[in-house]
């Protein structure tokens, strides 16, 4: 027996949208918790007073938004996990950036704004666990045998950790999405120059940035961050 909330019948205009709106509200207000299965299509159709075809259209709509996840062809859908929703958000933002042809300088300015705001908080009252993550990423970057691909991954992990150290979940979420949007630019930047030549400088700049945060110097961290990103991407 499912514990999912009962739904009211809907009007005949834009029926599947009304159905989707009710289920979306239940997911967002936690009436349907993450991972909880929806009732079968037949039962949902009875609750809403609509056809099973309408239910399927509403569920497809919500799945496309990342709010529902499928457990197989015959199993009822379930409310998506927060991680799945974040992945869909990142994917959507990346596509929008590409479709609108957002320039690299604009993306860098957005990233600087996000990281500067976060580092002001991180320098004042950091979340220690995330600072530890940044230190671990820096240690990985310092390894002589690290490949360009691995270096890219830990470079991003370093910056994401410093933003997360602010304790502001909204900033951390947007940072994760933005870093995916500029991934291609970063890979191109690494390919265009000698990795062996730029790696020591990039590592030292990250080391200085982490020291500024550890010492509570938000102003210095912001200055170092802008110089680091602008010089690396040539903006």
TrEMBL record:
Q: What is one Pfam family matched by this protein? A: FCD
Q: Which GO terms describe its molecular function?
A: DNA binding; DNA-binding transcription factor activity
| Keywords tagged on the record | DNA-binding, Transcription, Transcription regulation
This chain belongs to the protein called: Transcriptional regulator, GntR family
UniProt domain HTH gntR-type: residue ranges = 13-82
Q: Which organism is it from?
A: Sorangium cellulosum (strain So ce56) (Polyangium cellulosum (strain So ce56))
């Amino acid at each position: 027996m499912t514990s999912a909330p009962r739904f009211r019948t809907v009007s005949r205009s834009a029926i599947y949208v009304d159905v989707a709106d009710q289920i979306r509200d239940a997911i967002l207000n936690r009436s349907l918790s993450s991972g909880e299965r929806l009732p079968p299509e037949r039962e949902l159709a009875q609750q809403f007073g609509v056809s099973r075809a309408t239910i399927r259209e509403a569920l497809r709509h919500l799945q496309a938004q990342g709010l529902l996840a499928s457990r197989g062809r015959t199993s009822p859908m379930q409310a998506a996990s927060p991680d799945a929703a974040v992945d869909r958000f990142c994917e959507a933002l990346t596509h929008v950036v590409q479709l609108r042809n957002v320039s690299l300088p604009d993306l860098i300015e957005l990233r600087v704004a996000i990281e500067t705001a976060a580092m002001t908080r991180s320098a004042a009252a950091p979340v220690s666990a995330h600072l530890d993550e940044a230190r671990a990423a820096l240690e990985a970057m310092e390894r002589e045998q690290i490949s360009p691909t691995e270096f890219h991954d830990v470079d991003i992990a370093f910056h994401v950790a410093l933003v997360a150290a602010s304790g502001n979940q909204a900033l951390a979420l947007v940072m994760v999405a933005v870093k995916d949007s500029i991934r291609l630019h970063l890979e191109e930047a690494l390919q265009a120059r000698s990795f062996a030549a730029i790696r020591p400088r990039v590592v030292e700049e990250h080391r200085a940035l982490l020291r500024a945060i550890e010492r509570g110097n938000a102003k210095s961290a912001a200055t170092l961050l802008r110089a680091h990103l602008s010089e690396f991407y040539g903006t």
